[in-house]
Amino acid sequence: MFHDRELHRTFYSPARNAGTVFVHSAWSGTPLKKVAAAAPGSVWCQAAIWPDQRLVDKHLDRAEEADIPVLVLAGDVAVSSKRERDLHNGFTMQARPSPRSVLNAATKPRWVANFLFGPKITFGDQSIDGRAMNLREMGEFMHDDNDAVTWNDVIRIRKRWRGKLAVKGVMNAQDARRAVDAGADAIFVSNHGGRQFDAQPSTVSALAEIAQAVDGRAEVLVDSGIRRGSDLVKMRALGATAGLIGRPAVYGLVHSGEAGVAAVLDILRDETATALAFTGNTTLNNLNASALAPSSCASASSGA
Ligand SMILES: Cc1cc2nc3c(=O)[nH]c(=O)nc-3n(C[C@H](O)[C@H](O)[C@H](O)COP(=O)(O)O)c2cc1C
Q: Of 109, 145, 239, 255, whose CB is crowded by the most CB atoms within 10 A?
């Protein structure tokens, strides 16, 4: 969820230039139409299941109008997580200034000026009677939207959406099979970067079993914890078609804006090539779990 309009450009431009995709959040601060027009073909979009079905349908209409090729239905965050650091730091949608936060803000005048006088923080596509939501309303909307996604929702969205459908948040073989049976074109293995429920297993530990269950009937996407090209190689070897990143792009952004995001993608690309070479392969297409087995390490190193 990113609110600054310019901030968005810093993500989708490098993604497009690197030949990869950017997934637009359903809670984005920039309208989907605008992002999609800026990077045609490189933007996928998230669908959320809001209690008011009309909002969901409206979002699908927007996606269709924007020629979005892939809809990512996030089905896994039915409740808000307890983020103690956020609570401790007063980082909430309806932030209440404390002496500590006021003191902290005083040391960041540029941030404060941008917050007060820069583009208003609001949703790009969600509004109340055509009026942009304020922070309090956004907080309420996000809180109210936490509705458990059911298989009926997946089936309904599948019927309604003509493009490709990825179901995000799948963490076991049974759900993967069910999503494929419901018509998903891609299973998106994700635990939201472990940011929602820290007792959840890692995606890399769930991946092989899920890929096996899917058995080529759908693409297998994965995210959460990918930090190195070697992570991408491991995910690929365990059956993923593609790996996606969340926070690494944000870290690049914080470091040096759009150039930082582009650098993160470059680094990942280079590291992937290096890690691939160490498995003894020249293409990602041939990778399988044997690339991670001790015997292949032995043969790779004996050939070195
Ligand atoms: C700041 C932030 C905002 C996010 N917002 C959304 C969101 O609106 N919708 C969604 O499906 N996932 C959201 N995610 C989760 C990411 O899409 C992704 O699953 C996760 O970040 C991947 O893990 P990684 O950060 O370890 O790469 C968000 C993640 C971060 C860090």
A: 239
